[in-house]
Amino acid sequence: MSFIVENVWNFTDDFGYFENFTGTPPMDDDFAYSPCNLDRETFNKLAVVITYVLVFVLSLLGNLLVILVILSSRASRSVTDIYLFNLAIADLLFALSLPIWATSKVKGWVFGTPLCKLVSLLKEVNFYSGILLLACISVDRYLAIVHATRTLTQKRHWVKFICLAIWALSLVLSLPTVFMREAYIPPYSSSPVCYEIMGINTTKWRMVMRIVAQVFGFLLPLLVMLFCYGLTLRTLFEAHMGQKHRAMRVIFAVVLVFLLCWLPYNLVLVSDTLMRAHVIKETCTRRIHIGRALGATEVLGFLHSCLNPLIYAFIGQKFRHGLLRILANRGLISKEFLSKEARPSFAGSSSRNTSTTL
C-alpha cells in the first residue's frame, strides 16, 4: 500500500496538475491524486464571490475617479502623479477581470482558453506593474528629498519612457504563465480549470518560473523601496521638514497598503516553493495549511486594487480638492462649499519638488 501511495504522490509531483505557481486559490479538485486526506472546502466560496464583487465595484468607481482627477489637474501634475496614474490604470484593468474570477469560483472555468490567458495576464501584470511603479516612486522621492535634485523628477518625457518600460517588463514577467495556461478538465474531474500545462517537466519549470518572478518581481523592488524610503525618512526627520513629511503621507500609505495586501501572499508562496524544493519537509498537514493560506492571501491581494482610491480620499488633501473642483464645475456642489473645504489645507502645499496632486 505504501508503494502505491508513494507512486501516486510522485505522479502528482512529476505532472504538477494542481500546483499553485501563480497562487490561484485551490479548486475543489486540487490535489486529486494526493495521498493526504485533504479538506475539499478550503475557503468559503460565497464569501469569496461577494468579496470579488465588492472589490470590483469599489475599484471601478475609485480608480476611474483617480484617473479623472489626475487628468483634470494638468497644471499641478507631478512625476509621482504620473506613476500613480499608471497604478490606477493597472488596478482598473485588473478589476475588470474580477467578475470572471468570481464566476469561476462557482461554476469552474467555463470561459475557454483565450479568456483564461487574458485574465491571467491582467492579474500578473497588475501585480508586477504595481510593485515596479511603487519602486520608481520611491526612487523619485529619494532623489527629490535626499539629494534635492530636480534633474529627473521634472523631465516628464523620461517618466513616460520609464512607465512604458515598466509595462513592458511586467508583460515579460507575466508571459511564461500566460503562455502555459489553458482551460482543461483534469482527470477524474467534471469541473474545468484555468491552469498551467507544461508536460512532464511541469514541476521543474514552475519552480524556475516562480523563483525568477519572486526575485525580479517582488524581492528586488522591495529592497529598492526599503533603501530609498529608509534614507528619505531619515532625511525628513533630521531636517525637521514637517510640511514635506505631510506631503509624503499618501505615498507611504500606498506603499504600506500594498505590502500589507501582497506581502502575506508572497511569504506563503515562498514557503510553498521551499516545500516543493524539499528545503522544508513536505507533510500532509503542511500542504493543507499552505493551500488554505494561498487561497486566503490571494483574496487579500485582490482586495488591494480598490484600496488606493480610499487612501487618496481620506489622506490626500489635494485629491479631495481636485475631486470637489470637478463636482463644482459640474454644478453638483456649490462654489462656496468648495472654497470652505479647500481653505484649511490646499493653500499650504509643499514645494513643487515634493508635492503631489494626490
Automatic annotation (TrEMBL):
Belongs to the G-protein coupled receptor 1 family. GO terms for biological process: calcium-mediated signaling; immune response; neutrophil chemotaxis; positive regulation of cytosolic calcium ion concentration. This is C-X-C chemokine receptor type 2. Receptor for interleukin-8 which is a powerful neutrophil chemotactic factor. Binding of IL-8 to the receptor causes activation of neutrophils. This response is mediated via a G-protein that activates a phosphatidylinositol-calcium second messenger system. Binds to IL-8 with high affinity. Also binds with high affinity to CXCL3, GRO/MGSA and NAP-2. GO terms for molecular function: C-C chemokine binding; C-C chemokine receptor activity; C-X-C chemokine receptor activity. Keywords: Cell membrane, Chemotaxis, Disulfide bond, G-protein coupled receptor, Glycoprotein, Membrane, Phosphoprotein, Receptor, Transducer, Transmembrane, Transmembrane helix. The chain crosses the membrane at residues 49-71, 83-102, 127-146, 158-179, 211-229, 250-270, 290-315. Residues 62-312 form the G-protein coupled receptors family 1 profile domain. CDD domains: 7tmA_CXCR1_2 (cd15178). Signal peptide: none annotated. It is a multi-pass membrane protein. The keyword Endoplasmic reticulum does not apply. It is found in: Cell membrane. Pfam families: 7tm_1. PANTHER family: C-X-C CHEMOKINE RECEPTOR TYPE 2 (PTHR10489:SF689), CELL ADHESION MOLECULE (PTHR10489). Interacts with IL8. Interacts with GNAI2. GO terms for cellular component: external side of plasma membrane. The keyword Disulfide bond applies.
